[in-house]
Amino acid sequence: MAEQASILHADLDAFYASVEQRDDPRLRGRPVIVGGGVVLAASYEAKACGVKTAMGGRLAKALCPQAIVVPPRMSAYSAASKAVFEVFRDTTPLVEGISIDEAFLDVGGLRKVSGEPADIAVRLRAAVKDRVGLAITVGVARTKFLAKVASGVAKPDGLLVVPPETELEFLHQLPVERLWGVGTVTSAKLHERRIRTVGQVARLGEAYLVSILGQGAGRHLHALAHNRDPRPVVVGRRRRSMGAQRAIGRGPHALPDLEATLAGLVDRVSRRMRAADRVGRTITLRLRFDDYSRATRSRTLRQPSSHTTVLLDAAQGLLAASLPLIVERGVTLIGVAVGNLDGQGEQLMLPLERPDDGGLDSALDAVRERFGSSAVTRATLLHRGEGFTVPLLPDD
After folding, report:
1. Disulfide-capable partner of 17 in 6, 43, 109, 183 (CB 3.0 to 4.6 Å)?
2. Is 11 annotated as contributing to ligand binding?
């Protein structure tokens, strides 16, 4: 583990909403909500009114009546992400992207050529602003965990460096919710025992934390409370999954509409897989409901595949099995992901078992590559709108 604070966590501020404000001067300084049925993103002006990501659009407008609601433009967000990641890679070759709008950067080996990490962070923020037109917050610390915490504390549009000699002093004063893995359930368990700060967690024995949270969570939080995080910045790690999701608003939603949405998502994911020369074995269906609770269902194929028909058959089976839950709780978001990705060529199946859609997939990919992703679409998606999908990571 590096002894100096040389890991940067760079995180774009209110990313989708910021892109909208950048591209439309009329939106600047005004509350902006991206997504109507469900809030995909909110500007800081909207957040000041209590609007949060994943909140229902009706509630968001009630909290912030003056907000301007805009439809998502995923192509614009993808382009902005790629431009920001170019700035990251111009800063250091050691870049680990963790989402479409954030990354870890290791600048420990650049002191002789680029200066101190804090100075590099200042220039990084200026470069993103000048070249991409977006504000970005950067946290600098000795570990990935603490760098991410620092960026969260510094938001919005800030820079925070945590020197090694003050890291525990900084960390221990923060609420327990700043620890990775502390969600609503874990937070409630800790609060029941009057444990509210990271410092209080650090003073507890590991065995006690394990007794109230379980072995995995207890050991995990005990280590983080002492800033023990040996993970290095990993470059070039291939995605373990590819996926997309679509917010569909509050229902009721007819089954054909849900099936059409799912088909559109599978189309996009399978196309990205083929473009990356990847095949996958595990298909996961993700659902979010009216009460913001979530559920996942998955199925593992006998052979890895990137064929649209194979993946769609599996996803439709998962959707059919989930219908009782959907009817009972009301679905507001559907997502699909393909995991256990492999870069190897697809293993051939018996002739009678393998769908003959490889030529069709290739033909459709070629048309979309030449004329755009909307040049060919499924008949079931006509007049339903393109909707929006959210990639798990920016495409390189």
Report:
1. 43
2. yes
pTM: 0.69
377 φ/ψ angles, rounded to the nearest 5 degrees: -145, 165
Note whether 246 and 319 are same-domain residues. Answer: yes
Whether residue 164 is contained in a domain is answered as no
Q: Are both 319 and 348 inside the same structural domain?
A: yes
pLDDT at residue 383 tops 60: no
- Tell me how long the chain is: 396
Active site members: 102
Alpha helices in the chain (DSSP H): 15-23, 44-47, 57-63, 74-91, 111-114, 117-132, 144-154, 167-172, 184-192, 198-202, 206-213, 215-225, 255-275, 308-321, 323-329, 358-371
First to last CA, the chain: 28
Domain count within the chain: 2
Domain assignment of residue 252, yes or no:
yes
Of the candidates 220, 230, 221, 229, the residue with the CA atom closest to the CA atom of residue 202: 221
Instruction: Give the residue from 108, 173, 21 showing the smallest Cα distance to 121.
Output: 108
Residue-wise pLDDT tens digits, 264-281: 999 989 988 887 788 999
Q: Look-up: residue for tokens 């593992």?
A: 300
Residues 203 and 261 occupy one common structural domain: no
Task: Say whether both 336 and 262 belong to one domain.
Answer: yes
- Tell me the Ramachandran region of residue 292: left when phi exceeds 0, alpha when psi lies from -120 to 50, beta otherwise: left
In a domain, 394, yes or no: no
Tell me if 101 is assigned to a ligand binding site: yes
DSSP state of 356: S
Q: Does 16 fall in a domain?
A: no
